[in-house]
Amino acid sequence: MTATRRQVLASAGALAGFALAGCTSPGQVGGPSADETVLRVRVNNQSGRTQPVAVTVTGADGTAVVELSDETIPAGVSETFERTGLDGDSYSISVEGTDWATGAVWTPASCPTYTVVTRLEGTEGKPDVAIESSCSGS
Fold it and tell me: Which of 23, 28, 30, 104 shows its CA 20 to 30 Å from the CA of 125?
């Protein structure tokens, strides 16, 4: 059986809608609501010494939406800071210590649940720093 022009166009429209799913901003029709967004910032301190840490999350307009300072993470401990309900278009994430810093960018519309991990290793002086991230719920 040969498909009619109308059937082909209807199928193409459905496929286009499926391909664009998740491409809206939080709170818009089809995108995650603010209640569904989760940001996790984890610092895994394997450096052999206690590390002071500051976490700042800034919206696209430059406004800080999360500011944690004077946090200390003992050696051998992984600490997670979590925030839900962020509904902006994008966020800059900064994690800073005494002599190191990492950063990342999060776009909730394409990644409703975002985890960024800063790993500190080494036992002498300035720690070796690595960053990794994962996304789920997209």
Answer: 104
Per residue in 30-47, pLDDT tens?
555 657 899 999 999 999
CA distance 43 to 76: 11
Domain edges within the chain: 5-136
Task: Look up residue 120 and give its amino acid.
Answer: L
The tens digit of pLDDT for each residue in 117-134 reads 999 998 777 899 999 999
Task: Write down the CATH superfamily of domain 5-136.
Answer: Immunoglobulins (2.60.40.10)
* Residue count (the chain): 138
Cα separation, 16 vs 74, whole angstroms: 50
Please check whether residue 52 is in contact with residue 72, taking contact to mean a CB–CB distance below 8 angstroms: yes
Is 41:133 a contact under the CB 8 Å cutoff? no
* Rounded Cα distance, 35 and 102, in Å: 27
